[in-house]
Design goal:
Blueprint (H helix, E strand, L loop, with lengths): L4 H8 L2 H30 L5 E3 L4 E2 L5 H24 L5 H28 L3 H5 L6 H29 L8 H24 L6 H13 L3 H4 L21 H20 L1 E3 L2
Antiparallel strand pairs: 1-2, 1-3
Helix pairs in contact: 1-7, 2-3, 2-4, 2-7, 2-10, 3-4, 4-6, 4-8, 7-8, 7-10
């Protein structure tokens, strides 16, 4: 009996290349959040020094802009990745997949943090609203904004999987596979780097895992909310073995885990 064409394609996406691209996207999202959103803003606005790790920025200087910076940089980066997909439609499938997963990680990190801080009263946005009254109302607003923006992110990511990757909406198996692999890879990469951080092992459970397993959970179920009528904008193709992506990812992932996992001291 013949196998349906979309099932053959789902099996032919190269697992190693998909994982390599996902690892690079996860590293980039983390660097944008911690390195640009927190560290760079802190050093530019008064911090004399600090320790940058894969899962946290630590310094004696703190402010609302520093706390809010990580999320805002993630959201700005997501907009840039989305715009790149619109402006450069002739990029290779591998490059489009990288931009899409980078967009997804940054969107889910950014919008998910509102909900996380509102519910848990912990993290960046709990620090942003600290001292504001009535406090319960600010927490409620964080939860509501988080729910609304996260669901909007789910729709954007779903449309992009179909449109920018050229995968028919009905091919749920392939969409699921290309979404679950990045979800797992991000947990592994960020989790391993977090285990080495010198600040506190608790950051793995309080920051690294919520920011990956929690915030990125939209990758597990967004396919159920892809709007009807969404159509591919590209010819159907598969992600094939690419040793340039694999080599670059292996080197950068090792550096991220070993070097940034242990932390780097920064000064202005």
């Amino acid at each position: 009996m013949a196998t349906p064409a979309h099932n053959q394609q789902a099996e032919s996406d190269d697992l190693l290349t998909v994982s390599a691209i996902a690892a690079l996207a996860a590293i980039l999202a983390s660097l944008l959040h911690e390195g640009v959103g927190h560290a760079a803003i802190a050093l530019a606005t008064g911090a004399k020094s600090g320790l940058l790790t894969a899962v946290a920025w630590s310094s004696e200087f703190d402010s609302r802009p520093v706390s809010a910076g990580g999320t805002l940089v993630n959201l700005a980066a997501a907009a840039v990745f989305w715009l790149a997909l619109r402006l450069f439609p002739r990029l290779s499938l591998n490059a489009r997949y990288f931009l899409l997963i980078s967009m997804a990680f940054n969107l889910f990190d950014g919008t998910g943090y509102f909900f996380f801080s509102g519910v848990s009263n912990f993290g960046d946005w709990a620090a942003v609203i600290q001292g504001l009254e009535p406090y319960w109302l600010w927490r409620l607003l964080l939860v509501l904004v988080g729910i609304g923006t996260y669901f909007a992110a789910v729709i954007v990511v779903g449309r992009s999987f179909v449109g920018d990757l050229g995968i028919p909406r009905a091919d749920g198996r392939r969409i699921q596979r290309l979404a679950i692999i990045p979800y797992v890879v991000a947990i592994v990469v960020v989790g391993l780097a977090g285990l080495l951080n010198p600040i506190s092992i608790r950051l793995v459970w309080l920051s690294a895992l919520p920011a990956t397993a929690g915030a990125h959970s939209g990758l597990l179920w967004f396919r159920h909310y892809i709007p009807r009528g969404t159509r591919p904008m590209h010819e159907s193709a598969t992600i094939t073995r690419n040793y340039r992506w694999i080599t670059a990812s292996a080197l950068l992932t090792l550096t991220f885990i070993v070097v940034l996992g242990h932390g780097v001291s920064l000064t202005p």
